[in-house]
Design brief:
The complex is a heterotrimer of chains A (about 280), B (about 160) and C (about 800). With about 280 residues, chain A is of the alpha+beta class. Helices cover about 35% and strands about 25% of the residues of chain A. In chain A, the strands form four sheets. Chain A has a five-stranded antiparallel β-sheet with strand order 4-5-10-6-7. Classes of the chains: A alpha+beta (about 280), B alpha+beta (about 160), C alpha+beta (about 800).
Amino acid sequence: MIPASFDYVRPATAAEAVQALAQAGEDAKVLAGGQSLLPILRLRLAYPSTLVDLGRIDELTGVSDDGDAIVIGAMTTHDAVLHDPLVAEHAPLLAQATRTVADRQVRHLGTFGGSLAHADPAGDLPAVALALDAELRVLGESGQRSVPAREFFLDYLTTALGPAEILTSIRIPKLGAGWFCHYEKFNRVAQAWSIVGVAAVVRRSDGRIDEARIGLTNMGSTPLRARAVEQALAGAEVSVAAVTEACARAAEATTPPSDLSARADYREHLAAVLSRRAVLAAAGI
Amino acid sequence: MTRVSITVDGVQYIDEVEPRLLLVQYLRERLGKVGTVIGCDTSNCGACTVALNGRSVKSCSVLAVQADGGDVLTVEGLAGPDGSLHPIQQAFHDKHALQCGFCTPGMIMATWDLLRENGNPSEDEVREGIEGNLCRCTGYQNIVAAVQAAGQAMSGQEASA
Amino acid sequence: MTAVEDRAEDRAEIGRARRRKEDRHLLTGATTWTDNLTLPGMLHLAILRSPMAHARIRSIDVAPARHRPGVVAAFSGRDFADSQGTIPCAWPVTPDMVNPGHPSLAVEQVNHVGEAVAVVAARDKASAQDALEAIEVEYEPLPVVLDMPTALAEGSDKVHPHTESNRSFVWTFESGAAGTGEPISDALASAEVTVRRRFIQQRLIPSFMEPRSTVVQPTGDGFTMWSATQIPHILRTMLALTLDVPEHKVRVVAPDVGGGFGGKLQVTPEEVITALVARRLGKPAKYTETRSESLLSAHHGRDQIQDITVTARRDGTVTGLDVHLLADMGAYLRLVSPGVPILGAFMFNAIYKFPAYRFVCEGVFTNKTPTDAYRGAGRPEATFAVERIMDELAHELGTDPLELRRKNWIRHEEFPFTTVAGLTYDSGNYEAATERALELIGWDELKREQAERRERHDPVQLGLGISTFTEMCGLAPSRVLGSLDYAAGGWENAGIRVLATGKVEVVTGASAHGQGHETAWSQIVADQLGVPFEDVEVIHGDTQSSPKGLDTYGSRSLTVGGIAVVKAAEKVVAKARRIAAHLLEASEDDLDFAGGKFTVRGVPGGGKTIQEVAFAAFTAHDLPDGIEPSLDADATFDPENFSFPHGTHLCAIEVDTETGFAKIRKYICVDDIGQVINPLIVEGQVHGGLAQGIAQALYEEAVYDSDGNLTTGTFVDYLVPSASDLPSFVTDRTTSPSTTNPLGVKGVGEAGTIASTPAVVNAVVDALRPFGVDDVQMPCTPERIWRAIAQGAEKSDRAAEGTVAYGGASTSTADGSDGDQL
């Protein structure tokens, strides 16, 4: 099927993009990689008046070293993230999760920022951003602001981005020595969205887990942190028994959907199993 | 209407297009390049795969305006000027990697992209590498064999070149 | 072996793994898919589809669409009410079958989501689609009927108000009454062991890769249609009848067709609509569906509730099989909808010597997309049920499933064997195929591993599944089809023309869409006529150039169409022999024909090649009296029997009992399809068939919500497996040549699909036996497996209830609110 008609703007700078969005009004949509947006337009599930294409804004792409963090341009493609040495060194969890996103073709066009701004709770990267305590940099008419990942995802497909704001980059604190991570994804076929996914980041020393951050994919209308697990893991012994016990609490405070892929109770069960697997894999057990 | 300049299979085209025109429609309906086909509307099947600026993309999920200034390679641009089959095409033929042939253009272009990055993929790497392309006829087994054979043929060519 | 024999063997084309002639244009993008076609002045159609599963159309106004840019015309069903006829159903399975009629464009009422209600013709596709949004339709909702038992209940709401009930037909076979075996009542009454199960054949969507497309060009008082169809010949006849156009004024062309799997064995509303609009406007018109339209409106397959009862003696000898089916027709009867489950009637007894058998099938209307043929059509359903129930019987008896099968199957020395369903299986060797399969998979080693995993309560359990299947294919002997009330025959036609230069044209009525007929037919003809493989051109898929045929479905092409080619070749050789005898001044009886050359027996040297004979027949300067010029012949072949391929499929599957995820570790099949023309093509058919059968077991399901919306309406939700989701298969063959055709061949197109589904599900259930599980409903999703494990442990009695909540309305609630879903 063919999308309904829309106007098209291709700004050259981020500032121009913001301006274009402000001018086009609230029915405008940002076009990043388009890998979620174009199928939606083709099925005529959305009728934007204008698409503001960020595809030619150089300042929005690339990965840079920012001291204690790396900064990833919002328009950096999944493929570029996957192949980036800074990501590999300082945010391997992101590389691992990105490898599971869709397929090669989609990863060539789809962008890190686009998948965060789309805020599909079944998407893999929002939970990763949460687990990595990422900070999202947003540009609007009144200038630049920063939003911590935990405050960015408001509801299903809804973020803290205002109508004339764009996500410009994502700042991810470097994982120092002693940190380990793993992304555990569960889906029915290779192409399918995650039924549940778990992004685990743990710091361990001397046989104990000092700190853990667990991001959950598709366990609510937004990506979530499994706080109960994190608390239970803090100071816990690095053992199968201790991790299993802590991860049994993965579904606490979650509100997983019941849909075609799974019902809520099954998702709750999966969250515990996958959290355990993710933490054990991260902790190297 | 928006003016675009797109090179397809080595020929540059300049056209006025509606922004909503998909790249695959541009190829099929404006350029008559009907070798690239449309199999779905959710970017799952991969039948429309082409290379855009050297990377595989699903041309049903790219607007023609996004490809402005770009270089597109389709299945129609692979064979040699003398009509000789590209090693990937030859391998698909030799290994009986196609039946109805509808997924074949996309499969071949996905293979082209996979082998660009990994010239000698394992079976698992091939299966993962073409996971964005659906085939309903072959059960994939002969496609996997063809991709591996093509990889070997192409690296052999490079080595001897 | 002498040198001469060596050469003769080298020359044999049959049995060679020839690379396909069909490939080149498909590999280079030089294709002729229907959607590639553009005619001067061609209009593009877009179809407005019902968002309601069941509603009266209170009003419909297409006028606003006519005023949209680019639009030439817009029509609703009312504009064609008198001319559109009804989509034909060619298989009235019982004399009292209720066929409510099937308008291509709904007029008064819509009966499933996706039903066509209006059509727009515009100068380009985008304008046509845009204009759909301007059409105003007012629907008056009617109660939605989705679930078969509810649909059949007394006082149920009806899909079609003018019918008495939602029951279309009841079709019955009983071996006592038919005289093919003992009465089923005796078997049921005297059973030492009885096992009953309810199995659910979920609804599937054929999902051919090429969406359907149709182009119609009006030609004076007729029209030419290009369509993505498996059946150009049947379509032509049916269009003529439906649209009241003389058959000789209708030409149908099936150009490159991108897969069918039964899904393009249809006379579709979209084809009729395109013809109606093109003729009304006097302009060529094209309609190409989107994938989401295809999933919604192209016919679906399977969708049965199977109540199966098997009886046996304590020693494991089976004594009876009682089958009661509910078959969901969906909202309408399409071309062979009612016949699909009936094709299974002869196959539930499978390879086993049941002395008594009953089959009862009720066809049921619901507010869903019509069902019709999908790869295997009736036989996968039957094979699944019998192969599953044999495992359940073995479990009940505490015996090995393989031993139970061995005890009851037809032994190779018992062929030909007439079954309790009345069919005569010509040949087979179940023992040989099974032994080979067990050896290939390393059965005993896997058994040991399974025991170890069970012993140590490994979270990953290993399941081993068996399917020893047979099927009936090569549809079909015309007299059998007649006895089953099918409206056409089952013959096939072929023509062979040896041209002046000795090149050969083969005209076939079998219309291929991926099967490789061009290559296989060339191999057959090359051997028959002794001409080079390359010198043969196969012509098909156009009612003008290949005027006679019954097309491609039911694994019939080789066993019927291929034999027609042989028969035509025999006639050509016979004619050539007379001409050669004349030219060589010898008696026909003294001529040998080998390697494409006629020689006079006992006379060294000389002779006439078939090419020389063809040239003589062309010039006609010196032909024997009474011989017509030109070397060609036609033949129409009507098979005397079905063909009965069989095989043994074994599946080893790992089930992660924590998540429920099942992953096939090894899949082995040994198929016996008789003689093989091209092993490469055969293997490809098996691979693809396996993929589809495995997909039914593990992945695919068409799901409707309680309002009758198809919630698996795109490839995001309808899970066609990718390369990553399937294993590498090990395939092998045994050979029991068919005795009912001169090539000894059997069909192979559907075998993999028919055999594999129960092998996989048996493996899943086998993995879960220690948990008290004895069924998992298809597709065996991780969630269903997880729930089966959770519930299995609590159950002492494993009756069917609760494990098999019906795959219609009750499993379909998209919000998952139905607690019985498994």
